[in-house]
Amino acid sequence: AQQEILGTLGGGNMTEKPKRKYSTANDFPPVPDEEEFERRWAAFQKEFGSVVGGDAGMASMSTNQKWQMICMYELQQGPGSPSKGQASPSAKSSPPPRTGSGRGLTRGPSMKLFPGAGDQPASSPQQASTGPRGAEAKDSGKQDKVRSGRGRATTPEHWIADLKAYDHPFTLDQAETLKLQVRAASASWLGEFYDKGGLRATIERLTEVACAVPKLDEDLMLQSELLKCLKAAMNHKLGVDAMMSNPALVPALSLSLDSEDVYIATQTLELLAVVMVDGPEGHKCILDAFDYFKLVKGERCRFFTLVHVLWSGATELSFKRDVILFLNTIINSSQELEARVEIRSDLIYAGVLEAFEKIKASEEGLEEDDISDDRFDLEMQMQLFETVMHSDNNETLHEFRGAQTFSLAEPKEVFSALHSVAMEFDCSAQFHSTLQHLLLIPSYDQLGKDMWEQVEELVHEIVVPEQEKAYELTVPKVKSLLSWKDRMEELSQDAAEKASAAETLRYTVQDLEVKLKKVEEKEKLQALEARVLELTEAKAKVDEELAAANLKAAGGAIGGGVSSGGGGDAVVTALRKEVEDLKHQLATQGNPAGAPVKLKDDPQFQKYFKMLAMHLPRPAVELKMQADGVDPKVLDMDPEGPSPNQPKAQVLLKDDPQFQKYFKMLAMHLPRPAVELKMQADGVDPKVLDMDPEGPSPNQPAAGGPSSGGAGG
Fold first, then answer.
1. Any idea which of 33-42, 202-211, 346-355, 580-589 has the lowest mean pLDDT?
2. Is the pLDDT of residue 626 over 80?
3. Which sign, positive or negative, has the C-alpha torsion 183, 186, 191, 193?
4. Which run of H or of E encompasses 64?
5. Dihedral angle sign, alpha carbons of residues 679, 683, 688, 694
6. Which uninterrupted H or E stretch holds 63?
7. Among residues 104, 116, 108, which one has the least CA distance to residue 92?
8. Is the predicted pLDDT of residue 302 greater than 50, yes or no?
9. Phi, psi torsion values for 605, nearest 5 degrees
10. What's the rounded Cα separation, in Å, for the pair 446 and 463?
11. Which of 304, 614, 630, 680 has the fewest CB atoms lying closer than 10 Å?
């Protein structure tokens, strides 16, 4: 059917061979304005709409696909194309056939798909019967009864009984008579024949002959006649309906493809094509048939036998053309992108692209005038295959992480992208292990196929968001989910960078606070030193005055005046006491550990007083103190009073030599789990990291504070 659409027609009357100018989708002329496009598409649809699934099939095509079909059809038609507004020559009469084999799927647009089930080329296994029985069948018209060579009425029951009589061979003579009977029969006779299982019996007999080993010439001739019987049946709508109502017959019919006789294989392709163009159900039947063919024949993938035909140098160009036409029709009849990609992947795996290259290489050195019509039609079909493939591949492209672009339809490219992701996230070991497990899935039986389906379902359940699991994972859906995943990874990376910057800023602020505190302490110390210096100078002055007074008293200038000099001693004593107090204050400011600590502020007891302040029951607080080894009687002491723990020299936790290096590791942004592992290796409790770095170290000299062994009141 698609052969007719694209113009590779056996009945095309071309006065000039068109130039082959469309090698890729980019080579097509631009789409015209809407009015011109609709006019040419309407003419095209009127001419060929019935062979691509009607309005429903055409409605699923994109504008670019429609335009490519119009261009390729007009290219093949040449001058006088019907889409240009001229009348189609096929509308009046069937033009003479073009040069070539004349068989296969190449027929004129106004001709039936099978314009004569009995016609065959000279190279066929045998010629059509022209004896008395054949003439009698042709002359009988549409009568319900035809006399066979044995002289009895050939009713549907008679033929079905003969076809099912496997203990007696079904002869070539009988097959020829059945062919003529079906061709001339009325609708009522055909309906009865199909209703009682005549079509099934014919295909079962055909399968028996197709699988015969060894296969004799008589078997090939009988197989060919039985295929003609089916062609005669399929030329009537009743025959097509009967075939579609028994889809299990199609796989059995497909077994006839495995024949060394080109004519038998071509007839089988024609019959399968009729089923395929009968809507989505027919297309599914054909795919199921090739699955069955692969299983029975032990092929490594679907369509391997058809691709092997393209590889063979002994195969006629006309048959190669018919095979590629058939493959193009299978692919382009699929409305879903995923289905087309899946079919094409099987063909590529079977080596169809390499076969194309081999065919093209055989054309090198040929002049334009030396190229036969069959070779030209073959080249047009290969060109169509590659054009649609490039168009589909463009729809499956996805930009990966904003850097590289890969095709979701190419398994190798998907694998490469997945491998790079696994390496980036340090999951190469898990990725490799997963692949090794997948290698254990059986390759050639139904169990393996079931296991692959289970793997697909499990992966779908794991990676697809909950709200998307109810939908089929199509290529557009995969692209949408991948875009969402890339965006989430970008946001996550941005958040991580900002968190790292915030952490750095926090440490900077802490360093500034420490420096500010040191500056303030230094200023206080300088003020105290200035005060000490001032008092020292005052004391020196007083000492001078005291020395002068003593000197004066020794001279006897004033009697009794010296005895009153005790007041000067009192002043000096007071000043000395003030200096000592200031020195003590200076020492205390220089060494904060010497300052008295209130009981409620003592790190050992602080948390228990806070628990009471939070209105926790006192018995619960006492239990906690006992668990920590602290005497609960501390709670009876004055919280504002001095703590019994007055260390002589206090060391901050972060400055303790035992813990200093671990806090430095955290300050260098090392992961905390790594630091904890290092502490455990050194025999240090990692809980130290939960303590206040600015607080006192637990390694302080014992102060004799209260404990569970003895209370201090």
1. 580-589
2. yes
3. negative
4. helix 63-77
5. negative
6. helix 63-77
7. 108
8. yes
9. -115, -5
10. 26
11. 614
Residue 88 DSSP one-character state: P
DSSP state of 696: B
Burial of 198 (0-12, 13-18, 19+ CB in 10 A): buried
| pLDDT: which is higher, 415 or 123 | 415
Task: Report residue 702 as tokens.
Answer: 């014992």
Angle of helix 237-244 versus helix 187-195 axis, rounded to 10: 10
Phi, psi of 402 (to 5 degrees): 70, 10
Element (H, E) at 400: strand 397-400
Q: Of 157-166, 324-333, 585-594, 672-681, where does mean pLDDT reach its minimum?
A: 585-594
Continuous H helices in 555-605? 566-590
Q: Is the peptide bond before 18 cis (omega within 30 degrees of 0)?
A: no
In the numeric block, the tokens 């631009």 are attached to: 30
- Cβ atoms 198, 160 nearer than 8 A: yes
Report how far Cα 679 is from the mean position of its chain's Cα atoms: 44
Would you put residue 436 in left (φ > 0), alpha (ψ -120 to 50) or beta?
alpha
- Cα–Cα distance for residue pair 488/417, rounded to 1 Å: 18
If one compares 656 and 405, the residue with the highest pLDDT of the two is 656
Give me the percent of the chain exceeding a pLDDT of 70: 67
For the chain, state the CA radius of gyration.
Answer: 50
Distance of CA 597 to the CA centre of its chain: 66
End-to-end CA distance of the chain: 108
> Distance between CA atoms of 586 and 564, rounded to whole angstroms?
35
**Whether the predicted pLDDT of 498 surpasses 50:** yes
Question: At which residue do the structure tokens 């569970």 appear?
Answer: 708
What size, in residues, is the chain?
713
- The structure's pTM equals 0.47
> Do residues 76 and 82 touch, judged by C-beta distance below 8 A?
no
Residue 9, SS3? coil
Half-sphere exposure of 19 (CA within 13 A, CB side): 3
Contacts of 662 (CB under 8 A, 6+ apart): 675, 678, 679, 684, 688, 689
Instruction: Please state the separation of Cα 327 from the chain's center in Å.
Output: 27
- Would you state the pLDDT for residue 226? 92
- Coil, helix or strand for 405? strand
Block residue for tokens 């139904």 = 446
- Alpha helical stretches, state H, 367-474: 373-395, 411-424, 428-438, 446-463
632 Cβ contact partners less than 8 Å away, ≥ 6 residues apart: 621, 622, 625, 626
- Amino acid identity of residue 658, one-letter, is Q
Mean pLDDT, the chain, integer: 74
